[in-house]
Design a protein that fits this description.
CATH superfamily: Winged helix-like DNA-binding domain superfamily/Winged helix DNA-binding domain
Distance between the termini: 49 Å
Low-confidence stretches: none
Mean pLDDT: 79
CATH architecture: Orthogonal Bundle
Largest sheet: 3 strands, antiparallel
Number of strands: 3
């Protein structure tokens, strides 16, 4: 199952919250604490946290705190590798053609 981030939520915001939870095992934040820590408005913070719960990365625990579902390694949810193409420089291309 692929999860799609809510509209208006950037990958950068998701990555930041995801990384914070990875770097601090055992971290538990209320929605209000997360909102202050990440500098998000109430609606955006709720969307991001709910998305990470839906994706199976966070769990909403007692006391309305959000914590990681597991302490093991988990893949970042909902991201796909972007395809890119590297162009060779003109000088390098000419050298390759001359060979």
């Amino acid at each position: 199952m692929t999860f799609h981030p809510p509209a208006g939520i950037t990958e950068q915001v998701l990555q930041r919250i995801y990384s914070e939870y990875l770097e601090m095992p055992g971290m538990r934040l209320t929605r209000q604490q997360a909102q202050r820590l990440y500098g998000l408005d109430e609606h955006t913070c709720a969307q991001v946290l709910d998305y990470l719960v839906e994706a199976g990365f966070l769990i909403r625990a007692s006391g309305d705190t959000y914590r990681r579902l597991t302490d093991g390694t988990t893949p970042f949810p909902g991201l796909r590798m972007a395809k890119g193409r590297l162009e060779r420089s003109d000088a390098r291309r000419r050298r390759m053609q001359a060979s």
